[in-house]
Amino acid sequence: MLLGSSDPGTSYDGVVIGAGPAGLSLALEYAAGARRVLVLESGDEGAPRSELANAIGYGHFSDHYWNRHSIRELGGTSKVWSGWVTTPREIDFDNPATGWTWPIRRTDLLPYYERATRVLDRDRSIVLHETPVWPGFVYRPYSRQPPIRFAEKYLDTLKASTTVDVAAGCTALGLDANGARSAVTALRYWHHASGTIKTLSIAPTQFVVLAMGGVGTPQFLLQPRADGAAPVGTESGHV
């Protein structure tokens, strides 16, 4: 269900931060497995949030800057997608010219890419079809169908769900962990309706998933802590 500005409860199997394409897809997958999930979303159901920098000092640029790079609203960046879809090539995972090799290969991801085509209402050919044209060049199709707006597609499902709760107007600020940094113990978030920082306790049996986007997730992990310690998740010094 959509919680609106109500405080979320604690009786969940886990928390997903972000109600964009990744967060909503994952939450609904968990729900299909009979798990109760809380989704924290910075924005609201029908309007992007725009006052983050001034309200909570979140970020070192002004409000309008962040709205050009991320959409803080139910559905996330799917609100502005063009609908063009393709997947990475094998060379994107292992390119000798760069000297970098990923620990995963495209073949490892193919089953998940196929599942994603169903989520995005796309034909499987955009993942599976390849036609050699000449040496070094392989034809692969693009999808140019109308884009999927996640908020529109899944809104009724979320409203009716008894296993997924979406708490809008809750901007995640940081994680707390135990002394050994072996488990997350709490999640701090800004509750926009009350203008206060609140804390959600995380039990050892609960999971926390960061689905805040390619810019939002590392930004979240790199937020400085008031006690000067390394932010939880950046103990290695890398994000």
Properties at a glance:
globular, 239 residues, alpha/beta, five-stranded parallel beta sheet, single chain
- Helix percent reads 25-40%
Our measurement of the CA-to-CA distance between the termini, rounded to an integer number of angstroms, reads 33 Å
Count of DSSP strands: 12
Low-confidence stretches: none
| Strand residue content | 15-25%
What is the averaged pLDDT score?
A: 84
Strand order of the largest sheet: 1-8-3-2-12
Q: How are helices and strands ordered from N to C? A: EEHEHHEEHHEEHEEEEEH
Shape: globular
Count of helical regions: 7
Tell me the structural class: alpha/beta
Radius of gyration: 19 Å
Largest sheet: 5 strands, parallel
Structure explained in plain terms:
A hairpin with a 6-residue loop joins strand 9 and strand 10. This protein has helices at about 20-30, 50-55, 65, 105-120, 125-130, 150-160, 215-220, and strands spanning about 1-5, 15, 35-40, 95, 100, 130-135, 135-140, 165-170, 170-175, 185-190, 195-200, 205-210. It is an alpha/beta fold. The chain contains seven helices and twelve strands. The model has no long low-confidence stretch (mean pLDDT about 85). The radius of gyration is 19 Å and the shape is globular. The strands form four sheets. Strands 1-8-3-2-12 form a five-stranded parallel β-sheet, with helices on one face. A three-stranded antiparallel β-sheet has the order 9-10-11, with no helix packed on it. A two-stranded antiparallel ribbon has the order 4-5.
